[in-house]
Each structure stands twice: as structure tokens, then as C-alpha cells.
Amino acid sequence: MASKNAFPTHLPTTLGELRSSQWTQEFVARSVKDEMRDNLITKLRAKETLFPGIVGYEDTVLPQIVNAVLSRHNFILLGLRGQAKSRILRGLTTLLDPVVPYVAGSEIRDNPYAPLSAYAKLLIAEKGDHTPIAWLTPDERYVEKLATPDVTVADLIGDVDPIKAAKSGELLSSELTMHYGLLPRANRGIFAINEVPDLAGKIQVALFNIMQEGDVQIKGYPVRLQLDVALTFSANPEDYTARGKIVTPLKDRIGSEIRTHYLDSLEQAIRITEQEAWSTREVLSLHIPRYIREVIEQIAFVAREDKRVDKRSGVSQRLPISVMELVLSNAERRALVHGEAIAVPRIGDIYTALPGITGKIELEYEGEMRGTDTVVRDVIRTAVQRTFDGYFAEVNTQQIEQWFNLGGTVQLSDSVAAANSLKELQQIQGLFEKLKPLSLPSRASSEVLVSAAEFLLEGMTAHNRISRSEERSFSASEKQARKERAQNFHEELRDDWQSHNRSRRGFN
User: Fold this and answer.
1) Is the pTM of this model over 0.85?
2) What domains appear along the chain, each with residue ranges and CATH number?
């Protein structure tokens, strides 16, 4: 073909048409790794985005993947859960040609110019130029398998099919009686194995043998298949010793070992959650304040640092995505119940999203002793505190604290209408004047005002300036209340002593 990207609109349907078309034998016969390399070079020269949707790996992981593809390596991605390993592997299909021809009916997608299977060879010998040709898309050329301890050689490589033998009259030793497994069916494509340490050792041996030597024995019958496959793996580095390991011969044949990581930027995390979370609700409009997004992302960052959370398990980026969706749903439910035109999430909605957090963290012994709900509430509180400091570090909140110290209380609930909550909050002297760092619009709706005010109060609670009960009743902090009680007690003692002295002077 004149250009490897200039694919014709008409696709040949027979081998004769293919031979007389622009689909030359040289072009079709390229290996998968050469094909990926050629298309990657074209993308690099055009400065195209290589892996759309992958955020935060531009200077770390992606350059290593590019080097591995340019080197025509099989490679493995090592990283904790929720680090986009599977997404990266599936994104490799963007480096494949839009379509490639194969012998129609072939289970292993034989190259028409260089068939591997006995089926394709016999068909071409019989029909010649009239051999039917079919076409593969990139998605059809990607095969993925989650490794589990019960995976067998038959699953990955294949097995003798006695039913085929009986119907065809072939001997069991004939290749025509073979039922192909996932790896041969991935011929001329990409084969990805997730959590490869979970594969039994003998399965890993069969895997690298068919890849490296092109042969394997199935029930005593030798099978030779010079497959053309780009092999990729993923694994959790902690699982090398916890659940299994990659056998040395297979590990030696993996060209590149690339480590993924969690994001170290709050902005990048917000971009991913905004990209992945379902935040477009058709029923009513949503307004998600910036501080809500930050608190939700901080939950994952705080949990990864918390000593009570198992670091080996990790905290997936799926956590903030799930939390965001639950928070929006709770705000949506409140707006629908009270007939509000807009749904605005509050900090209280984050506490209702505990089901989206508890299932995504594994606790150490200390955390298990405290209880999952307690640990998660502490994590949310710390996340609120960090976000609060980013907005209100220079804001003097003594006027608000004084209002609570004089006996003021406010009852807020995630199920109460914004108008009712706004009336409660308007009692607090100086509260809304302190919201300037949030850059609220001049005519903010009651939903927006209540959300912003609750964020301020929650931040003050996180700093122990005021107190909040589990029923979300805000009041003076316990520390301040004890101080007030002690001061009142001393004042009463002083008054009693002065009264006693006056009585003695009067008696004398």
C-alpha cells in the first residue's frame, strides 16, 4: 500500500481480490508488534494524544510504555488497584490498524498470505483465489483474561475436542480436532492477562512455551503454533508474595516491567473523577461546588496516608468516583422531594456516601479495632479540614464561635429543604459574611448558600472550634463548653466568698 494509514473504502471479499488490491503481502504480513510500532511512530510525529482519558502519567508511565512498544516488547504493568492498568492495556488497540484481513471461518484469524492452522491451509488449497476473506477491527483483536487459580491449559492454549474428532472422522492427534483456547484466538492481536501471579506455575510454563518456542503438548500430542501476538500483563506488586509469583522463565521473557502509581495532584484527581463519574442527571440541573469536589478527592488522599488503612491493598481512584455519584444522588433526592429547581451537594451528603467508601478500603488491625465507620468518618473529617484550610485559613471565625458559646445551636440535615436550613443558618451572626473566600455569586440561591455555610461550619468542627453531634446539630465546642463551665464555677466561688466576707464584716 502507498500509505499505511490510507485504507481503501472497498474491502476485498476473496483471496483473489485481496492479491490484486493495495493490500500487499508485505503490508499484511507485518507482525502485530511491528504494526503497533509503525502506528505509534505516526502518532508521535503528528503529536497525537496516545492514551485519551489517562491523566497524570504523561511524564512517568506513558514514556515507558512508548519505549516498550517501540522496542517491540511484551510488557507488564505493576501497580495497586485503581491505577488505570486495565484501561491502559485496552487503550493499546488505538495502535492497531483500522482493519486487517483474515481467512473467513478461521478460529485463529489466519493471515491469508501466511496461514497457520490446518483449516486455513486446506481451505486455500481447495478454493485458491475464491477463498473467502473477512476483516477484523481493533476491538476484535484485543483479548483479555483475568487470571484465577482455576485457569487451565485448555482455557489458555486449547484442548483436544473428541466431538470434533467423532464428527470429522479425524484422529485425535490431528490438529483439526483441536479446540483452541484464548491465546490462539488472540492471534494477530493483543492478549492481556490481568493479575498474572494468580496463574498456577504449570500454566505460566505452558504460556511462555507457546509464546517463545511456538509449541506445547496437549494430552501428549505436540502442537506447534507460531502465533503472532503482543502479550501484555498486569499485576499488583504486593501479590508477588501474598498470593503467588511469576515463574522466572516467564518473567525473563517479559521485555519491560512498568510501575504505575497513584496521582500526586489534587487537580489531576478532580479531572479523572469529573471525567469518569456519572454527573449528568436528566431530571434536574446540578451545581457541584468546587470545595465539594476537593473534599471528595481529599478522602482518597487522606485514606492512603492513614496508618489504619492497609497500604498494600491501596485506595483506588474508583473511591472518589463512587462517592461523587452517591453525593449527587443524595442531593438529587433532596431536591426532588422538596421540589427544588437545582440540586447542590453539601458536606452532609458526603457522610451519606459511606457505602461508597467502606467497601473500597482494607483496614489494618488498629483500624479494625476502631471499626470501619469510625475510621471513614475520621478520614472525611480530615479531608474537610484540609479543604477548609485552603479557603478559610486567614478568616477570623471568632464571631461565629462566640454565637455558639452564648448558647446558640443549629440543626442541619441532609434531608431538609434548603429554604428551611437557610432560616436556621441566618440566626448565626456573621456567618454569611465569612463566605467571601468561596466566591459565591451575588445572588446565590438558597441551595448554594446552605451548602457553603455548612462547609464553613464543618471545617470549624474539624478544627474543634465548634461541636457537632451525629444528628448534625452544631453547638459550642466541648472544649469551649468545659472552659465556660469552669469559668462560671470560679465566678460562683468568688461571689460566694465575697458574700461570705461581707457577712462577716457586718457581724463584726
Assistant:
1) no
2) 31-98+137-259 (3.40.50.300), 266-476 (no CATH)
